Amino acid sequence: MSVKKIIVAVTALVIIAGCMNLPVTGQQPDVTAPRNLRATGYDGYVQLEWQAPAFGGERVNEYRIYRSLSDQKFYYTSVGSNTHSLRDDDVENGRTYYYWVTAIYDEDRETGFSNEATATPVGISPPTPPKNLRAYQGNIEVQLKWEAPDDDGGAMIMNYHIYRGPSSDELEMRYIVGTTGEYSDKEVVNGQTYYYGVKAVNDRGASDISNIVSATPSADITVPSAPRNLRTLVGNRLIELYWEPPLDDGGSPIQSYRIERTSEQPGQQHRIFNSEYAFYSDDSVTNYETYTYNVRAVNIEGRGPSSNEVMATPTMVGIPPSIGDLDAQASSNGIYITWSEPDTEVVITSYNLYRGRSEDDMVFLTNIIGSTHFEDHLVEGGKTYYYMVRTVSEDKLSLESNIDSATVRESYSPTEDDDGKIGLPFLALLIGLLVAIVVIVFIFAFLKKKQKPTASEPITDKGWQHEPEKTNFQETEADSSTHKDTIERKEDDEWTIRS
């Protein structure tokens, strides 16, 4: 074989080997980087886990872990080739750590870096107190309900401790219950008042106590009376119901409302909904179908009588336009919400404002007439609230506006009166009182001047005064005569003066 043919053959082999990604020297391809690195922070340590390289895992001698407090990579430690996890105990709670992993193969070769993973170890602490504890008195029974803490302390809530006593200052731990958020205390006596508080417990300990509530069980408790003034607004595949609470709660607070709906649709003839508020938004309806509703209030004794019955038909015809620029901002008085009036020929009669602690739990807050702003005072410092608005035209509702949220300033604390309603700050109240006093003094002086003639001003020039059938004007100091004027009213409502 000639030298030329040998050169051609070798060249062909090199080209074929290159196409097959096989090194001509016999060296194997590079091992790929470790995969799917994950880092999870716990109390006092970070747990790392990863997967072997997609190619060449059998050639790995060890794994190298790199760690940093930023995105710079520093070698930290190594583990064996059969290990795909690491518990990093050399960490501080509250600091964020960055991790990467490489593989060492063929004795001294190192792969590229895995994906970056970060974790912040967090210390476990006792949870914050349970929220919104309520007590419902019944006949030889007190029902308690509460909401989970905002912060579980970094560990699962194990149970709740219920405290009870004859006063708010004499509470003792009475019951340990699960995580359902409610308890029925039947170890009570009618006519006696009981005070309650609840603590949440995790692995680290118990929370501070919740708000304190009281209840007095009684044999006289009955079901509540009927909700009042049930009414509806309709929109596109939407019916919203509004009503007023019963005049009589039966002696125990209303726990919920039962909404009963009937229609002619197959499979939808009778449905039941429940609401904690005097409001319900029914979006399980079909346009142009007619639905009938009534509402019953529920307390510890059961359901009361039905409200008035209403009928409603959802529609997409004639509904007003929605709002697109709703804005919520924290203010010194809570949260200030604004929006623009829609550019439309449809007559906007009012706006419905909705609020929630998340985008998924919006509840009707208030109806606003003649304004495109609202200041929400009934909020808690440091909490985030979400808002949405619908325009209202007669009995029709628009679609949802955009949703915006704001976080109340930590220092905010509303001033409340005995009914829990927002009151004026003290300075504003004082100013209002002073203004009222000045106005009263002015009115009193004006009326006194009006009623008391002077020597230089004849009584006939004082103007007509609408008094009872007969009024005697007292003699002035300037007039020593015994003259008296008497005004009499004729039957035809004309006035004459007789001397």
How do the helices and strands line up, and which of them pair or pack?
Blueprint: H1 3-19, E1 35-42, E2 45-51, E3 60-68, E4 74-80, E5 85-88, E6 97-105, E7 109-110, E8 117-119, E9 131-138, E10 141-147, E11 159-165, E12 172-177, E13 182-185, E14 194-202, E15 205-206, E16 213-215, E17 228-235, E18 238-244, E19 256-263, E20 270-275, E21 279-282, E22 291-299, E23 302-306, E24 310-312, E25 327-331, E26 334-338, E27 350-356, E28 363-368, E29 373-376, E30 384-393, E31 396-397, E32 404-407, H2 426-451, E33 470-472, E34 486-489, E35 495-498
Antiparallel strand pairs: 1-2, 2-5, 3-4, 3-6, 6-7, 6-8, 9-10, 10-13, 11-12, 11-14, 14-15, 14-16, 17-18, 18-21, 19-20, 19-22, 22-23, 22-24, 25-26, 26-29, 27-28, 27-30, 30-31, 30-32, 33-34, 34-35
